[in-house]
Amino acid sequence: MSAPFDLLEPTRRHFLSGAGLGLAGLALGRLFGRDETLPHFAPRAKRVVYLFQSGAPSQQDLFDYKPLLNEKNGEELPDEVRRGQRLTGMSANQSTLPLAGAQFEFRRHGACGMWVSDLLPHTAKIVDELCFVRSMYTEAINHDPAITFFQTGSEIAGRPSMGSWISYGLGSLNENLPAFTVLVTKNKGGQPLYSRLWGSGFLPTHHQGVQLRAGRDPVLYLTDPEGVSPATRRRMLASLRRLHEGQLEREGDPEIRTRIANYEMAYRMQTSVPEVTDFASEPDETFELYGEDAREPGTYAANCVLARRLLERDVRFVQLYHKGWDQHDNLPAGIRVQCAETDRASAALVVDLKRRGLLEDTLVVWGGEFGRTSYSQGKLTADNYGRDHHPRCFTIWLAGGGVKPGHIHGETDPYGYNVVRNPVHVHDLQATILHLLGFDHERLVYKHQGRRYRLTDVHGHVVDDILA
């Protein structure tokens, strides 16, 4: 296992700026012989797989059953429910905000009695393995700041991503694969995703996420050019290392050591990445479980299989992104497509991890960046409606890794518009994920430009009620 943080050669400047402060102080303490290690306490989870549903799934049509919306379908959203909430520019000028009931059947499932829409038949079968949080909320009302907030703890771009923080704090369990990998469903329209969402911000760059892509070259520029043998590549890296070490000795810039580490990791990945992305050894049973889409690289189902293969090899943090949940109109047709692409594989991943003995110490997270409105954006008709962005309440689910299975946390009002019990903020979720990995979120810090930063900024509380 690699070091859980960067053991940099201390210069006078780095010592004065970092000694005794957060992880930088711990790193220097180890250099000077103090036996201080992370995590802060015994973790419940060793790894995380985050199934991010970009665009914001409609909670009223999937998990948060609200029969009152069907009873009052077409009636105006009451002012006492809206409470003056700001609206986006897409619905702020509507002359009416008609309530829109879900056009899908809901049923109770499992011993926990969780309501699930018939859009998610596979998820419905495993509700007793899942922990539902129906009281998530955020301040962000537009996609980019909302996604950035979930991924980095700030609505403003530039902070380290969650996977980078975890890589920084815990290091890697597999020397031949990145601690943090990213998978994006191919050929999906919707809100754009930027590499800064899995960037390392001001943390050393080898903690950034490495995207694995579908196709011949899963990692760009990893394959040697034609005519370059492995032996030639090895000699080149050895020479490059000597040059960099000379530069490091002269300049004392720790990022030079990071550059050396990245080159060496890339060399090892030339063998490890082709092996992990090759599904030839997977039995037919795998594709029966995840669906035939899993045979096609780059689909959501294939990425779920790849996520399991990465987790089996002890990759710390696997981030999946699936775009297209942004149904401002034509919601009934659009959400059917999204659920057909994701429901079976999401449930299969939980089942697969459990039967392989990995779910107990792997945390699975499923959810988007905010919720959707209970009123219809645009014209409400007998068979069509849309929903605008809604930060006040939405649903996510978690599984494994120390959370309560078959648990339902939080509640929204009968209109599905406001949280009325056990609210969970984005920073609360982040604090809880870090807690399950053995971190005190207030102590996982990094000093940058004179300030101690952390994933949860200056907020966040562990949600003890969802812990097993």
Describe the structure.
The protein has 468 residues and is α/β, with parallel strands linked by helices. The protein has a single domain (38-217, 292-466), classed as 3-Layer(aba) Sandwich (Alkaline Phosphatase, subunit A), CATH 3.40.720. It contains 14 helices and 17 strands. The chain has helices at 12-18, 22-31, 59-62, 67-71, 79-82, 121-125, 143-152, 162-170, 230-251, 254-277, 284-290, 300-312, 331-355, 426-436; strands spanning 47-53, 106-109, 114-117, 130-137, 180-184, 210-211, 317-322, 362-367, 371-372, 389-390, 394-399, 407-409, 411-412, 419-421, 424-425, 446-448, 451-453. Strands 1, 4, 5, 6, 7, 8, 11, 12 and 15 form a nine-stranded mixed beta sheet that branches. Strands 2-3 form a two-stranded antiparallel ribbon. A hairpin with a 4-residue loop joins strand 2 (106-109) and strand 3. Helix 9 (230-251) packs antiparallel against helix 10. The model is unreliable at 2-36 (pLDDT under 50).
Summarize the entry for a quick read.
The chain is α/β, with parallel strands linked by helices. The protein has helices at residues 12-18, 22-31, 59-62, 67-71, 79-82, 121-125, 143-152, 162-170, 230-251, 254-277, 284-290, 300-312, 331-355, 426-436; strands at residues 47-53, 106-109, 114-117, 130-137, 180-184, 210-211, 317-322, 362-367, 371-372, 389-390, 394-399, 407-409, 411-412, 419-421, 424-425, 446-448, 451-453.
